[in-house]
Amino acid sequence: MARPSLTSQQKQAVAHPVTGRVVSLYHPRQQERREHFAWSQDLTLILGITPTGRATVDQLALNREDVVNLPRVLAAVGNHPP
């Protein structure tokens, strides 16, 4: 999967990956991370727990293989989640 190249000016809203409804993407300076995201039980995947969170995870491909490997390594040495 190709890495996305997004800046905050490029996209602020996208279609929700399941419903197709337009939702805003997560904005780290305006929203609380814990309101929109959680870690999977094995601490390797970022889960969107709101429509905004799910759309952001999908749009930014936050669970692509090269990203998921880091939490696995950090969890193995007891230094995860952030």
Written account of the structure:
The chain has 82 residues and is α+β, with helices and mostly antiparallel strands. It has one domain. The strands form 2 sheets. A two-stranded antiparallel sheet has the order 1-2. The protein has a two-stranded antiparallel ribbon with strand order 3-4. Strand 3 and strand 4 form a beta hairpin. The chain is elongated.
Identify the notable features of this structure and list them briefly.
single chain; 82 residues; alpha+beta; two-stranded antiparallel ribbon; 3 helices; 4 strands; 32% helix; 15% strand; elongated
Short description:
The protein has 82 residues and is α+β, with helices and mostly antiparallel strands.
Blueprint of the fold:
Elements: E1 13-15, E2 22-24, H1 33-36, E3 37-39, E4 46-48, H2 51-60, H3 65-76
Antiparallel strand pairs: 1-2, 3-4
Gross geometry: elongated
What average pLDDT do the residues reach?
85
Report the total helices: 3
N-to-C order of helices and strands = EEHEEHH
Total tally of structural domains: 1
Q: In which order are the strands of the major sheet placed?
A: 1-2
Determine the strand fraction and express it as a percent band: 5-15%
Structural Rg? 13 Å
What structural class do helix, strand and pairing data support?
alpha+beta
Q: What is the number of beta strands?
A: 4
Spans of at least 5 consecutive residues with low confidence: none
Most strands sheet: 2 strands, antiparallel
What is the straight-line distance between the termini? 25 Å
Q: Classify the helix fraction into a percent range.
A: 25-40%
